[in-house]
Each structure stands twice: as structure tokens, then as C-alpha cells.
């Protein structure tokens, strides 16, 4: 029986989207600029194609322009970097997203680093990692940025709390730890080689599960009243499921995100929000 309060990511995402749509319209009225996101897809991965299509639909819904670049599965790193450089020089493009993963022959890091810092609205470059960790103006990795917005929307007091992040990927676990640190949390980052993981999770006031394993985090790992953020999205027999064993965890947690409908909607919302902000900055206006 669920006793935790569900964190409604769809509702919070809608609020962010409304603010973004208003910013996009103000920018058009102020200087005649339409915020534009360029998405780059390499290869034929169905899931990636689905995600890119969703991003383009959201742009259209909120009044942003979008550019879609589709490259062949055999594309080389040099060819991809050339295309990203071309988008970087295009004054009508304000944000660039390279859909990952890319085919194995491509140096993904080299491709990410070709994205100009001012157009890195997905928060994937070394520059963005630096600004995230130092709390400087820049663009956050979208999923961690979305999680922070969820915590704020539900008035979660992060300061001084013990947060356990399970996962250390460059686009989720590591930047998540940085953003939580910047909000004065005490952060423990766990991973596949962590010893006594359940005992560490039991100490957490805030748990962020980003390990990529279905129902990995067990309910009896959760401290009573903890905030549980499930950033997992794994295929299951009855649809997608998260990294947290939801039902038993929800009996102990105070707040918990469902899958789907929790973290996922926030990733897209932050992407378009940051694109609208990037467009305003590049136009030299405060909106």
C-alpha cells in the first residue's frame, strides 16, 4: 500500500513549459528572434529516434523552432564534428542537442566538445560540467536539473541533508552530485563497486537512483520519510519501470517519483527551458 506522496513530474514540467512558452513569445516580440533547438541523430536506434521526435514536438508546442539533422549509421567522428561546427556557426540556432548514445565508431566526447558552450543546452560539455560544479551561469545536464526543480516544487529542504546518488554517469550521477552539493547537501555517490550499498542508502534523507537496473533499490533500503527520486527507465513485462522497487519503497518514503510520470517529463522541460534562455542570452536581452 502506497503511503508516500507522489511527486507529479508532469505537473511540474507543465509549469516549466508555460514559463518557457512565455519567454519564447517575449523574445519574439522584443527582438524578433525565435528560439531554435537543433537536434542531431546519428544512426537508426528506435528509442533515440522516438526521443528526438518528442523533443521536436515539444518545441513546436511551445513556439520554438527546431532543426533536425539525421546522419547515417556509418558517420565518422570527423563528419559529425563538422556538422556540429556548422550548427555552431549558424546564428539562427541557439541550442544544439546530440542524441546519445552514438554509434561505437564515434568519439562521443569529441563530438560533445564541438558544441559551443553558449549552445550546450543539454549540459554535456566540460564547460557545462565546470559551471554546474562551481555554481556559475551556464546550462545544467537536463535530468539532474529537472530533479532539482522537482525537489524545489515540493519544498524539499536540501540544505544539510544526506543525499545518496546511486550511479556515476557523466550525464546524470556526477552532475547530480554537483548540483546537490551546491545546495548544501552532504552527498554520497555510490556505484557498482560500492561496499554495503544498502546500509548507505538507509542513511539517506534523499535518494537519487540512476543505476539503470530495474527495481534495483529495495524497499527496505529506504529510511522512513526519505525522498526517493527514481531516474531509471527500464523495459519491463508490463511497461517501463524504474530503478526503485516502487511499491515497497513507497510504503516507507515520504515523497517518491513514479515511473513513468516523475523524472522523465522534467528532462524535456529543462531542455526547452534552457534553449529559450540561450536564445535570449545570444540576442543580448534579459527575459
Automatic annotation (TrEMBL):
EC number from the UniProt entry: 1.5.1.5, 3.5.4.9
One of the Pfam families matching this protein, by short name: THF_DHG_CYH
Stored InterPro entries: Aminoacid_DH-like_N_sf (IPR046346), NAD(P)-bd_dom_sf (IPR036291), THF_DH/CycHdrlase (IPR000672), THF_DH/CycHdrlase_cat_dom (IPR020630), THF_DH/CycHdrlase_NAD-bd_dom (IPR020631)
Gene3D superfamilies tied to this protein: Leucine Dehydrogenase, chain A, domain 1, NAD(P)-binding Rossmann-like Domain
Domain Tetrahydrofolate dehydrogenase/cyclohydrolase NAD(P)-binding: start-end pairs: 141-282
Record pathway: One-carbon metabolism; tetrahydrofolate interconversion
Top-level lineage group: Bacteria
Keyword Amino-acid biosynthesis listed: yes
Catalyzed reactions per annotation: (6R)-5,10-methenyltetrahydrofolate + H2O = (6R)-10-formyltetrahydrofolate + H(+); (6R)-5,10-methylene-5,6,7,8-tetrahydrofolate + NADP(+) = (6R)-5,10-methenyltetrahydrofolate + NADPH
Domain Tetrahydrofolate dehydrogenase/cyclohydrolase catalytic: 7-122
SUPFAM superfamilies assigned: Aminoacid dehydrogenase-like, N-terminal domain (SSF53223), NAD(P)-binding Rossmann-fold domains (SSF51735)
Alphabetical UniProt keywords: Amino-acid biosynthesis, Histidine biosynthesis, Hydrolase, Methionine biosynthesis, Multifunctional enzyme, NADP, One-carbon metabolism, Oxidoreductase, Purine biosynthesis
Binding site for NADP(+): 167-169
Known role: Catalyzes the oxidation of 5,10-methylenetetrahydrofolate to 5,10-methenyltetrahydrofolate and then the hydrolysis of 5,10-methenyltetrahydrofolate to 10-formyltetrahydrofolate.
Family, per entry: Belongs to the tetrahydrofolate dehydrogenase/cyclohydrolase family.
Subunit structure: Homodimer.
Record-given protein name: Bifunctional protein FolD
Species annotation: Natronomicrosphaera hydrolytica
Gene name linked to the record: folD
